Amino acid sequence: MDDHASETSLALFSPITLPCGRQLPNRLVKVALYEHLANLRGGPPNSYHNALYSRWAQGGWGMVLTGNVQVSGEHLSLGRDTVIPPVVTEASLKPFKELASSMHGSSPLAEAERGTSPLAIMQLSHGGRQSPNLIGGRFPFASPLGPSSIRVGSSVQHGSFLGNAFYRFLFQEPKPMTLDQISDVVAAFVRGARLAAQAGFDGVQIHAAHGYLLAQFLSPKSNTRTDEYACDNALQLVRRIVDNIRLEVPESFVVGIKLNVADYTDTTGTSPADRALAHITSIAAWGTVDFIELSGGDYEDVAFMNKPQSAESSDSPRQALFTQCAHDAMRSLEGIERNSEQKLPLILLTGGFRTPAQMHAALSAHHTDLIGIGRSAIVCTDLPKRLRSDIDANTEAVCQQPAVETRVVKPTNRLSNWLWSKIPKVKLVGSGVEVAWYELALRRIAEAVVSSADGEATPEFDFDLGNTKILVGMWLWRAPR
């Protein structure tokens, strides 16, 4: 192994310690991916979740995050969400204990002794106004809750009458939340964190990105309140949740936050980068958060659902915004005044990484502390092990996502062709086809493990799927009891 490969291996596979004292065995993080494996109207994790996460547990990751676990059963995202039970009992806690065990590996204690067990983090979320009609956990056409009465999609045009009608059908005008309802949401996040600690998870991540409820409070395009939760005091709700969680969990329990950098492009007056940095440095100054993940996109701007550009590409303004913001955040955190015992949160940058050289460059340039991997972790559940092997062999071969053109094939009959020629104009549905492919891939992994005798089977993926087959396959499925 030459000097460059040695430096890359040292950067990626060196351990790092979070402010709470918990250590990651390396810098590679399997970030949250929506599994779509629970009951159709939401429910607890099941054997398919356990099978799926057992694969990532064996992959050599430093930290593994669940998909968004909803704290409200009435504000789901795509129906088959994992949901925190309203009342935590021994029976309702059991499936979460099984999931935490699966995320740690078949023998958590043995793995931990070797320092290779990934930290298991539960991502907590609330859909808010972005919880859709019919599959959002409410009665048909019942309004979701949100910071203000601004419907998803009302601020943008969707290219056609069909696109605008689709958004109006799918997303109802939200009811502005009362102070009591905000307190209920705080209590729900705290209940979720308490359950995670009791179930054996190492921590939680508070989802304040991708247009969900907490991101809605942070964004002026969805928050026009004039009380203490107005956009001028945007972090008030997030801080209240974090502070109350810290009162309920052990000191060594990990608490992270996922922020939506793309939302800051919709602000006026202050530059987007400056406002994003102000929030990041404010959160860091609290002294209660262990890591901050930088991400972006929502159901109005679906860029986060589409294939990102390379982390080193100058062709993607979105990726450039994330990378620059992460770099500026790292520099600004160094200047925060703090006492000798206060440690700064780590920065987790997610999206666009394709080779060990790109990952090493991001770490060595001080753009980030941790490397977040999403969709590539579906195609290669053991990506860290493969990277380590490739680096040791001094090669650049890593597991890549298949090309979009290969993975999404339009149907051939005349009626379907006409229908699908219309659907891409509804941007959310067009992106949803791509998301559905990944949901099927996740399910294939889980099914292969469940059906194998030793839990080691690796599925063969058929990338040549038509749009109709993808969407039908995603929805016409029955979760195990």
TrEMBL record:
Keyword presence, Oxidoreductase: yes
Cross-referenced InterPro entries: Aldolase_TIM, NADH_flavin_oxidoreductase, OxRdtase_FMN_N
Ranges in a coiled coil: none
Transmembrane segments: none
Keyword tags: Flavoprotein, FMN, Oxidoreductase
Keyword tRNA processing annotated: no
Domain of life, source organism: Eukaryota
Location of the NADH:flavin oxidoreductase/NADH oxidase N-terminal domain: 12-392
Family: Belongs to the NADH:flavin oxidoreductase/NADH oxidase family.
Protein name listed in UniProt: NADH:flavin oxidoreductase/NADH oxidase N-terminal domain-containing protein
